[in-house]
Amino acid sequence: MAPERPLPKEPERLARILQIGVDIDCTIFNLVPSSKLAAEKRFGIKIEDERVSDYWFLEEILKGAGIPEKERRLFYQDIYRSSENAGVYLDSPPMPGAIEVLRKLHQQGHEIFVLTSRSAEVLPVVEQQFVAQGINWVGGLWPEGNIIIRNEDYWPKKGPVMVDQVFKLHAIRGDFPYGRYQNFPGLDYHLDDQAGLLGHDLSLGVKERIIILSWSYNREIVPETNLVENWWAFERLIQDLARVEKLSLELPNVAQS
Question: Which of 5-19, 31-45, 99-113, 189-203 bottoms out in mean pLDDT, i.e. has the lowest?
Fold first, then answer.
């Protein structure tokens, strides 16, 4: 684990204040350990830790254990979409460096927006996760707050659903065609774990704004220019992009005086 870099002692100014979007699951919080425990409890099976290399591998494990598809779908619905079973989220530890870097970026004046494909039903759970980490400035749906979650406009009980990748790409582009976020201005950069964002047609023209946090399921297919190994690397990237400049006393230019 890379050491946390302390805030600079010298005064700084940001040449640019960035609007930064960040995905929650497997980007800010590691959903893998709590998902594994939930599956073991639900199905009465033992999953060896070394078999769970990432969140997506859980599906293959459950299929291999003979769990019918219908039961797997109900399991995902129960633990990921219901506020009554919030433990899988509340028990998810932060990714290394995530909370420290988010605090720094916020302190430096950047606007942080939390994007998630979770249903709006678990909005209070999202807020609880950040409060538990000592972050009280994440809360409320945009435009009153800084959380962008698929509410009933994009995930109705009946009718077409705006899928995860499309939802996030409209947020990045700032061109929601309808709904609560229709006037959202867009993002300068967005950090996520889903490589599929880069391959979608809506990514045309905004690929350079999409940064992918390295996982075993994405690092082989994401261009190096869009991949960061950890949160500290993301912080360095944002610092460079925002052109952080140290304030210094400028001596008069005698040659021009």
Answer: 5-19
CA neighbor of 15 nearest in space, from 132, 109, 117: 109
Helical ranges in 10-56 per DSSP H: 32-43
Counting Cα atoms < 13 Å in the Cβ hemisphere of 217 gives 13
- Collect all residues with Cβ–Cβ distance below 8 Å to 45 and sequence separation of at least 6: 39, 65
CA distances from residue 2 to 231, 236, 237 in whole angstroms, order as listed: 9, 12, 15
Q: Judging by DSSP bridges, how do beta strands 111-119 and 19-23 pair with one another?
A: parallel
> Residue 183 phi/psi, 5° resolution?
-100, 10
Distances from the Cα of 189 to the Cαs of 33, 56, 71, in angstroms? 28, 25, 38
Which candidate, 161, 191, 185, places its Cα nearest to that of 173? Answer: 185
pTM for this model (two decimals) = 0.84
Rounded distance, CA 181 to CA 190, Å?
16
Q: How many CB atoms lie within 10 A of CB 133?
A: 18
Cα–Cα distance between 37 and 75 in angstroms, integer? 12
Cα–Cα dist 87/117, whole Å: 18
- pLDDT over 70 (residue 113): yes
Q: Which residues contact 165 (CB under 8 A, 6 or more apart)?
A: 194, 196, 197, 200, 202
C-alpha dist (Å) from residue 186 to 68, 128, 183: 41, 25, 9
